[in-house]
Amino acid sequence: MRPLHRPVCRLIRLAPLSLLLLASCIGPPLVIAPTSLPDGAVGTTYSSTLTSDGVPPVMWQLTTGSVPPGLTLNQRTGEVAGTPTRAGTYDFTVQGVDSQLFVRAASQSYSVTILEELVIGGTLDEARVGVAYSGRPNVSGGVEPYRYTIVGLPAGLSFDTNTGEIFGTPSLDDDKELEIRVSDSGSPRQTRSRRVTLIIRPQPIEITTTALADGGVGESYSQVIQTLGGAAPRRFSIVDGLLPDGLSLNQATGLISGTPTQNGSFTFTIRVRDGDPSTTTDDAEFTLVIRALPVAIATTSLPDGRVGQAYSATLVATNGQSPLMWEITEGALPLGVSINATTGQIAGTPAQIESTTFTVRVTDSGDPATNATREFTIAIQQ
Fold first, then answer.
1. Do 97 and 112 touch, CB atoms closer than 8 A?
2. pLDDT tens, 59-78?
3. 366 confidence band (pLDDT: 50, 70, 90)
4. In a shared domain, residues 279 and 321
5. Cis geometry, peptide bond prior to residue 350 (ω within 30 degrees of 0)
6. Strand 371-381 relative to strand 354-363, pairing
7. Is the domain of 147 the same as that of 183?
8. In this structure, what CATH number is given to the domain that contains residue 248?
9. Over the stretch 300-314, which tens digit does the pLDDT of each residue have?
10. How far apart are alpha carbons 1 and 370 in whole angstroms?
């Protein structure tokens, strides 16, 4: 049952000298509800309606302050509604006036806080196959803590519902479109969803060749530097040291090829760079041994000698890695004559008439060593 309100009336003279009087009556104040309005959030539809115990229609108007930007007060229905556009706290006073004969009115003050809009950023840090990943959506606004749901993660990755961290090690270079859903802890609670692409790059490029085969001077050489991962095209280069003379590196294929012209041990560093937009590189140091040409005995014959006369002839070798070692492997030198193992000189004083045939072997110091043999005959005459 509506409460009984007693109006307050007073007489008003229509004119200073007039005998006519008019009664003016005002009822007791309206009771306005609610006494407080809910808070809102930027970008979230807002609606709250004021009511009173007055006789409808009740007319509503702002008397001080203003409602949050994006909201309006409906003067006929008392609804405060719209979509807030700016965060902040807004204080305002609303007056309601009813329509009964004995007019009733009242004012009510409100303070409404508009929260920052919950926003999910549109990018994630790139991931890479075979590399531990840790990234999270860029979330702002609303009220922390947030609650996350992420759908569509590739094999090897998981997420934390409390922090939104995406973690793990991707196994395939296959970009994935994720659906990210975030709810905040504010009042009103905001929930946002957004599709974000997680880019997964190929495995970082890696040189898998660990050693190079030896080569030899004058011998055709060919070996490819093998790699794993990365994206084509790949580019190879020498960043430290030099290849042996006669060899070159194919920058597109990683092939070392040519015919070495110089023996020795050569140390150099090869770098490979892949063609991925987020390029990766790898360096590897190699030592390439180029053997000298196999040793050969250039001397084809030895002079004869005479009994009692000093004899001397030096064997000559070509190629091979010094120092050389000479030795007799078959037969024997004439009596009184010997061979110098270091110089290859055959010298001495023959002691008797004879003709001897023997085999000489020379061995170089290469690794592996090479050797050569040749048969000779020396005749010692009177």
1. no
2. 999 999 999 999 999 999 99
3. confident
4. no
5. no
6. antiparallel
7. yes
8. 2.60.40.10
9. 999 999 999 999 999
10. 123
